[in-house]
Amino acid sequence: MLPGASPFIITGLRQAFQRSWIAVVGAEMLAGSDWGLGWVIYDAKEFLNANVMLASLAVIGAIGFAFERLVFGSLERATVQRWGWYRPPRHDCLQTARIIYHC
Predict the structure, then answer these.
(1) Phi and psi of 63, rounded to 5°?
(2) Cα diameter, the chain
(3) How many CA atoms does the CB half-sphere of 28 hold within 13 Å?
(4) What whole-number distance in Å separates Cα of residue 52 and Cα of residue 60?
(5) In degrees rounded to 5, what are phi and psi of residue 90?
(6) H/E element holding 53?
(7) Which of 56, 70, 82, 88 is the most exposed place for a label (fewest CB within 10 A)?
(8) How far is the CA of 37 from the CAs of 30, 47, 69, in angstroms?
(9) Can you give the residue ranges of every domain in the chain?
(10) 8 Å CB contact between 37 and 59
């Protein structure tokens, strides 16, 4: 049962992380905390520092992208290798630009 359900579990974890990451940054803006990227963006908005706001958005995106690739990418690779959902391409197949001959 676990091999069949693991793609859906991983997808659910990815979506949960994405939504929680958005919620954390948004909560920092609304709660008015004294630290965090949401506070930096809110503070930069108050003082019209567009470069700080854009840099903070880039950092938020970079953290989300890195977490996606490092955590969920490695989890997905481990799952695929463990349960054998990946079949490497055969090198003896003939491939051209328009026609692919299946072996």
Answers:
(1) -65, -45
(2) 64
(3) 17
(4) 12
(5) -85, 135
(6) helix 50-67
(7) 88
(8) 12, 15, 21
(9) 2-83
(10) yes
Q: Give me the pLDDT at residue 52, please.
A: 94
Q: Contact at 8 Å (CB) between 75 and 10?
A: yes
Half-sphere exposure of 1 (CA within 13 A, CB side): 0
CA angle 20, 44, 68 (to 5 degrees): 30
Q: How far apart are CA 30 and CA 42, in angstroms?
A: 9
Partners of residue 58 on adjacent β-strands: none
Residue 95 pairs with which residues in a beta bridge?
100
* pTM exceeds 0.70 for this model: no
The pLDDT tens digits for 4-58 are 787 788 889 889 998 998 898 888 888 877 788 888 888 898 899 999 999 999 9
